[in-house]
């Protein structure tokens, strides 16, 4: 199992792997699309080291009714919602809960858009090689929502890049994208913080500062 000092180190190592695995010509039309908050720190390092544009795609995890930590889906800034249907069925998640939680998360997303993004700067992804980044992939719900959004913009290719990914999510996501670049897919995966020495919460100010670099 790989341990990262922090998200900055993880981003640098991921940038090195992307540079080694992706043809130089592919990087000419590439941009990094990071998922706040932690994914922006990882994506910021990739953007800096590979000299690529950086943007963010705001998503919100949808928690299970009995557990804030367990994601049963995700909603993106465009309104796209992705559910982990098998998990929802296993937990008997009701339609009413789904409707209410999505409404709540969309309100939160609207606020984050105001915090992180300019209305004058919509996503420009058409014919681009889009590298979606996060600080790790557990259930995969957030990444799947991001992929669904990006696909609507007619990109040239979709690549997912993450330092660590749960094996349960790995194969499912591979089928949705052109490439999935990662550093570790451990057998035992409880939560992302087990792979980082420092996994402190990233504040909004740091996200905005990274996006403006």
Provide a descriptive summary of the structure in words.
The chain is α/β, with parallel strands linked by helices and 213 residues long. It folds into two domains: 11-21 and 29-58 and 127-212, Rossmann fold (3-Layer(aba) Sandwich), CATH 3.40.50.2020; 61-116, no CATH class. It contains eight helices and eight strands; from the N terminus they run ααβαββββααβαβαβα. The strands form two sheets. It has a five-stranded parallel beta sheet, with helices on both faces. It has a three-stranded antiparallel beta sheet with strand order 3-4-5. Helix 1 (7-21) packs across helix 3 (38-50) and helix 3 runs parallel beside helix 8. The chain is globular and about 50 Å long. The mean pLDDT is 93.
Annotated CATH topology of the largest domain = Rossmann fold
Into which percentage range does the β-strand content fall? Answer: 15-25%
Proportion of residues in helical segments: 40-55%
The run of helices and strands is HHEHEEEEHHEHEHEH
Mean pLDDT: 93
Q: List low-pLDDT spans.
A: none
Broad structural category: alpha/beta
Widest sheet, order of strands:
2-1-6-7-8
Protein name: Phosphoribosyltransferase
InterPro entries: PRTase-like, PRTase_dom
GO molecular function, one term: glycosyltransferase activity
Organism: Candidatus Shapirobacteria bacterium CG09_land_8_20_14_0_10_39_12
Outline:
With 213 residues, this protein is of the alpha/beta class. The chain contains 8 helices and 8 strands.
């Amino acid at each position: 199992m790989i341990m990262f000092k922090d998200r900055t180190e993880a981003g640098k190592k991921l940038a090195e792997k992307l540079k080694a695995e992706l043809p130089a010509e592919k990087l000419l039309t590439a941009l990094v699309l990071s998922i706040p908050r932690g994914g922006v720190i990882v994506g910021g390092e990739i953007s800096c080291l590979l000299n690529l544009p950086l943007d963010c795609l705001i998503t919100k995890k949808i928690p299970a009714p009995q557990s804030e930590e367990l994601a049963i889906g995700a909603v993106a800034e465009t309104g796209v919602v992705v559910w982990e249907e098998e998990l929802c069925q296993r937990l008997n998640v009701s339609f009413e809960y789904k409707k209410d939680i999505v409404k709540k998360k969309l309100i939160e997303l609207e606020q984050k858009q105001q915090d992180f993004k300019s209305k004058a700067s919509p996503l420009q992804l058409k014919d681009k090689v889009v590298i979606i980044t996060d600080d790790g992939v557990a259930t995969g719900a957030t990444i799947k929502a991001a992929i669904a959004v990006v696909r609507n913009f007619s990109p040239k290719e979709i690549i997912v890049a993450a330092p660590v990914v749960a094996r349960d999510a790995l194969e499912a996501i591979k089928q949705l994208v052109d490439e999935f670049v990662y550093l570790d897919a451990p057998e035992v995966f409880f939560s992302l913080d087990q792979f980082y020495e420092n996994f402190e919460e990233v504040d909004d100010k740091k996200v905005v500062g990274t996006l403006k670099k």
